[in-house]
Amino acid sequence: MYIACQKGHVDAVQLLLDNGAEVDRAPESGMTPLYIACSNGHVDAARLLLKCDAEVDLATKKGTTPLYVACQRGHVDAARLLLEKGADVHKATNRKRTPLHGVCDYFQCRDSHIEVARLLLANGADVDRKDKSGKTPMALAEDQGHSDMVALLVACKVQTVPAPAPAAAAEAPAPAAPGLEPCL
């Protein structure tokens, strides 16, 4: 099952499931077939596993979920599918890192990583959440030198920080800063 999911061989995955393979069976590491499919960006295999009731947020021994690994590796379509199926954007690893931390800390930042970050933010990811070492996603992106990611996070952070308001207007929501409306 793992090789079929790793290679994206949907017909083989279907055949194995039809013949009694357990959809969430994992070795000691906890890497389920869904985790393996999402890790490699094989959306059709992931979709099939989810259709067969794979647990969307089942984590590995280290606490990484299929969403975390899909985001970290820049697999936008896999991340989108998982979110559509109810994956928890806030579920953290043993190091208290969310999928947004994972995408910001990846050693290389491609356009797909920016798109994944936008997707996570659109689904309520917390820009200010700190991991076990006290780092936010922005701090991790800065550490990696990912200027485009930092710019995206700054723009989103500016949109979510309410501007100080006079007492009479304290109940009104703060408008987005000019030019930053398309953050997501």
Characterization of the model:
- It is a single chain.
- The two termini are 36 Å apart.
- This protein has helices spanning 2-7, 10-18, 33-39, 43-51, 66-72, 76-84, 99-104, 111-122, 137-144, 147-160.
- The model is unreliable at 168-182 (pLDDT under 50).
- Helices cover 47% and strands 0% of the residues.
- It has a single domain (2-160), classed as Alpha Horseshoe (Serine Threonine Protein Phosphatase 5, Tetratricopeptide repeat).
- The protein is elongated, with a radius of gyration of 18 Å.
- Helix 3 (33-39) runs parallel beside helix 5 and helix 5 (66-72) packs antiparallel against helix 6.
- ANK repeats lie at residues 1-28, 29-61, 62-94, 95-132.
- InterPro entries: Ankyrin_rpt, Ankyrin_rpt-contain_sf, Dendritic_Spine_Reg/Scaffold.
Helix count from the secondary structure assignment: 10
CATH architecture descriptor text: Alpha Horseshoe
Helix content: 40-55%
> What's the end-to-end separation, in Å?
36 Å
pLDDT averaged over residues: 88
CATH topology group: Serine Threonine Protein Phosphatase 5, Tetratricopeptide repeat
Q: So what's the overall shape? A: elongated
CATH homologous superfamily, by name? Ankyrin repeat-containing domain
ANK repeats: 1-28, 29-61, 62-94, 95-132
Pfam families: Ank_2, Ank_4
Keywords: ANK repeat, Repeat
